[in-house]
């Protein structure tokens, strides 16, 4: 297959009237004589989006749903351009989480998800967000190890409040096992955050959210996470979690190479308003905003990454190239998969998103197969 006439967004910049050749599941340089040619003039071709923090969608939860439910959630996000997805859990008791780890690891082995992210239970009760306080616990390295083992080599990331007892030792344990230690849902000071980074933490879980605000005398974790080039910053660009000025501040300080736009999506993403469960907590979604029924705390998002891309370019004023890096290349690098995904280069998986001139989604391909066929009229 050959896509012609497109604005192809490459690592080196956007090529006008570009040409992309796909052979089977991969991008290549030479098309066979009988290749199908599709004229996509006036459209952008981007690499498929990579979401490293996602709890569900399409009415399905990655924390509590059946395999059929989880696959439905994955497919919902693929319809919106996310061709690589890490499935995130929320706080639960350890036996339940280890059981979920086993189920999700099977889907990872089948290539349906890129790994497992454990958000909780090792988080601060002061910054719990939409997590059940009675199920929270300190990050005991032995229990962290139990989750890693249950995931059978498919644990990608664990979010920790690293200031809690056992936090620093758990960061070291995760780093030793090749699992990302993410600082989040934390009440840490600036100094405690620096200590965790020096111990091996490399990600800020949804920066600004569920952590102390930036202060001019008590800068807290935000300043430490922003200023250190070893940290990749997660940002939720849905217009609810962050004011555009806060997002731009973080983006321009860290740069596209250190920002990963995420959804932090819950069941309602791509599905609609209504009542849902996030772990053991009931959530009401109204006008696309998810909040706990008990106290109105924001409970994840209903975001999809095609909407995040459009907002980044049209509202936040980012360049197409920077938005692509934050949605594809940076998270792919963080996952250690830059050799296969994250950019449109020969030899990589044929994962791509087709957008029109208004940045609306018009096609999605994953590994050479159309998930959403090109809609060119």
What brief labels describe this structure?
single chain; alpha/beta; 8-stranded parallel β-sheet; 21 strands; 27% helix
Give a short synopsis of this structure.
The chain has helices at about 65-80, 95-110, 140-150, 165-175, 190-200, 220-225, 245-255, 305-315, 320-335, and strands at about 1-10, 15-25, 25-30, 35-40, 45, 50-55, 55, 60, 80-90, 115-120, 155-160, 180-185, 205, 230-235, 260, 275-280, 280-285, 290, 350-355, 360-365, 370. It is α/β, with parallel strands linked by helices and about 375 residues long. Strand 7 and strand 8 (about 60) form a beta hairpin.
What secondary-structure arrangement, pairings included, does this model have?
Blueprint: E1 2-10, E2 13-23, E3 26-28, E4 37-39, E5 44-47, E6 49-54, E7 56-57, E8 60-61, H1 67-78, E9 82-89, H2 94-109, E10 116-119, H3 141-150, E11 155-160, H4 167-176, E12 180-183, H5 190-199, E13 203-204, H6 220-227, E14 232-236, H7 244-254, E15 259-262, E16 274-278, E17 281-286, E18 289-292, H8 305-314, H9 320-334, E19 352-355, E20 361-366, E21 369-372
Parallel strand pairs: 1-4, 1-5, 6-9, 9-10, 10-11, 11-12, 12-13, 13-14, 14-15
Antiparallel strand pairs: 1-2, 2-3, 5-19, 7-8, 16-17, 17-18, 19-20, 20-21
Helix pairs in contact: 2-3, 3-4, 5-6, 8-9
């Amino acid at each position: 297959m050959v896509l012609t006439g497109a604005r192809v967004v490459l690592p080196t910049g956007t090529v006008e009237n570009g040409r992309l050749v796909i052979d089977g599941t991969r991008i290549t340089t030479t098309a066979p004589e009988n290749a199908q040619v599709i004229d996509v003039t006036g459209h952008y071709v981007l690499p498929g989006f990579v979401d490293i923090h996602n709890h569900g969608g399409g009415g399905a939860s990655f924390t509590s749903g059946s395999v059929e439910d989880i696959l439905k959630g994955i497919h919902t996000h693929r319809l919106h351009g996310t061709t690589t997805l890490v499935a995130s859990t929320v706080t639960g008791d350890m036996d339940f989480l280890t059981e979920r780890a086993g189920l999700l690891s099977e889907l990872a082995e089948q290539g349906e998800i890129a790994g497992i992210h454990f958000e909780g239970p090792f988080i601060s009760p002061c910054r719990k967000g939409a997590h059940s306080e009675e199920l929270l616990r300190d990050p005991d390295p032995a229990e962290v190890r139990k989750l890693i083992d249950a995931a059978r080599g498919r644990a990608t990331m664990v979010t920790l409040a690293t200031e809690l007892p056992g936090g620093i030792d758990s960061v070291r344990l995760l780093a030793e096992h090749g699992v990302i230690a993410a600082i989040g849902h934390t009440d840490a000071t600036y100094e405690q955050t620096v200590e965790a980074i020096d111990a091996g933490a490399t990600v800020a879980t949804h920066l600004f959210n569920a952590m102390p605000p930036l202060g001019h005398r008590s800068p807290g974790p935000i300043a430490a996470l922003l200023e250190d080039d070893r940290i990749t910053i997660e940002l939720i660009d849905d217009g609810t979690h962050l004011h555009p000025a806060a997002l731009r501040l973080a983006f321009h300080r860290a740069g596209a190479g250190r920002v990963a736009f995420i959804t932090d999506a819950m069941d309602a993403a791509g599905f609609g308003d209504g009542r849902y469960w996030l772990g053991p907590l009931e959530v009401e979604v109204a006008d696309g905003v998810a909040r706990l029924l008990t106290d109105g705390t924001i409970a994840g998002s209903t975001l999809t990454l095609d909407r995040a891309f459009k907002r980044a370019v049209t509202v936040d004023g980012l360049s197409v190239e920077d938005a692509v890096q934050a949605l594809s290349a940076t998270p792919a690098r963080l996952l250690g998969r830059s050799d296969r995904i994250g950019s449109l280069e020969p030899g990589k998986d044929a994962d791509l998103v087709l957008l029109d001139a208004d940045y609306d989604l018009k096609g999605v391909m994953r590994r050479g197969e159309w998930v959403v066929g090109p809609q060119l009229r």
